[in-house]
Amino acid sequence: MKTSTVLDTFRHPSAFIPLLMSVAAFTILAAHVLIFGTGHEADEGTSAHLFQLLMVAQVPLVPYFALTSPQRSPDRVLLVLGAQLLAAAGALAPVAVLGL
């Protein structure tokens, strides 16, 4: 019988897709700040809308992973949930710090 590793837990789409979405949201935010700066615009642009969509679209995926995780090991589920939370916090932190 093959033993599953922690990496196997992250191979499930419901585990790694929210991480990729947070990284994409951060990348969009960083590119926008590098190109246009932190000045406030009269209307939110495409980057802001993409950022918001990526962050909100994660909301149903995270509980889906927690409820349907193939491994019933709570420590692995909590590890993935913690990584997803840290990635989301990392994407949201510049918004709070820079006041965007």
Task: Give a nutshell description of this structure.
This protein is mainly α and 100 residues long. 77% of the residues lie in helices and 0% in strands. The chain has helices at 6-10, 13-36, 46-68, 74-98.
Word description of this protein:
With 100 residues, the chain is mainly alpha-helical. The chain has one domain (7-98). The protein is 77% helix and 0% strand. Helix 3 (46-68) packs antiparallel against helix 4 (74-98). The protein is elongated, with a radius of gyration of 16 Å.
Q: List low-pLDDT spans.
A: none
Structural class label: mainly alpha
User: How many E strands?
Assistant: 0
What is the H/E order?
HHHH
Topology:
Elements: H1 6-10, H2 13-36, H3 46-68, H4 74-98
Helix pairs in contact: 2-3, 2-4, 3-4
Descriptive tags:
100 residues, mainly alpha, 0% strand
